[in-house]
Amino acid sequence: MTLAGGEVLPQTADSFLYARCACVLAGEVEYGRVVQGEASFDRFTKPYLQVAESLLYLPGQAYEQKTGRRMRVHSEFPIEWMSNRQGWAEA
Q1: In 3-state terms, the chain is what percent helix, strand and coil (to 5)?
Q2: Of 83, 12, 87, the residue nearest 45 (C-alpha)
């Protein structure tokens, strides 16, 4: 990934997923600004923000804490990057 200043930031296959988590954690207003194109998404790709991955595990942890059982998850929508290729326009 190339950042606004031209710096190249190596990304793993999951980096975009974690950057999206960081964007969501920034709050509804910031998320909305990014979606509307009013703010840059690249600031969420910084290496230290990759810890935002923990957001993905929060629902299961909360469920288990509340019920004492592991949450069984079945989703028709995978969260992995580019797993929904028909939803992405070809460049």
Answers
A1: 50, 0, 45
A2: 12
Phi-psi region of 5 (alpha: psi -120 to 50; beta: other; left: phi over 0): alpha
Q: List the structure tokens of 54.
A: 């923990």
pTM of the entire predicted model: 0.64
Report whether 76 contacts 40 (CB < 8 A).
no
Q: What is the C-alpha separation between 50 and 46, in angstroms, rounded?
A: 7
Each domain of the chain, given as residue ranges in start order, spans 15-71
- pLDDT tens track for 43-71: 898 878 878 888 888 989 999 999 999 99
